[in-house]
Structure prediction request, 187 residues.
Amino acid sequence: MTLLSVLMIGIGLSMDAFAVAVAKGMCTRGGKTITTALYLAFFFGLFQAMMPTIGYFAGIYFSDLIASIDHWIAFLLLAGIGINMMREAKAEEETVCEPLYLKQVIILAIATSIDALAIGISFAFLKLDSIWSAVAMIGITTFLLSFIAVFLGKWLGSYIEKYAQIFGGIVLIVIGLKILVEHLFLS
Prediction:
């Protein structure tokens, strides 16, 4: 898997966190924008990096058992996550402005990174050269996009939130198709 593919996966995975950060940015008052951006970006980036690591090591354990169908599993996981992201984007929810307590931020970070666990499993099946560079790229990408999203949320309002999830879903589906095509027709 190329670095560009990992970067695109990182962008796709970060779209849930991006959407939440936009929503929280819309609620930011006064001079708390930078603090809120750093707070959310840190936890979202951390959990987006931890979850694929956990998934990777769990996947390594099972990879020999299902090596002949690993490309189908990677495709189905990526496509399923992508379709779910687009479905969630269509179900518009009202933004709730509430304080950012550590417990709530951790719950949001876990909720927005569950799909990264499945990506980590697919990384194990794809036999990545370095899980550490992949998870670092995913974590840093999520950190940067979440940081920017808080400011975008403050500036743009709710218009961009739905489209970020749709974009992320499309990116994950395209990468899943690319993996499937490479394994079926180019190997």
Q: What stands out?
A: The helical segments are 3-26, 33-63, 70-90, 102-126, 131-156, 159-185.
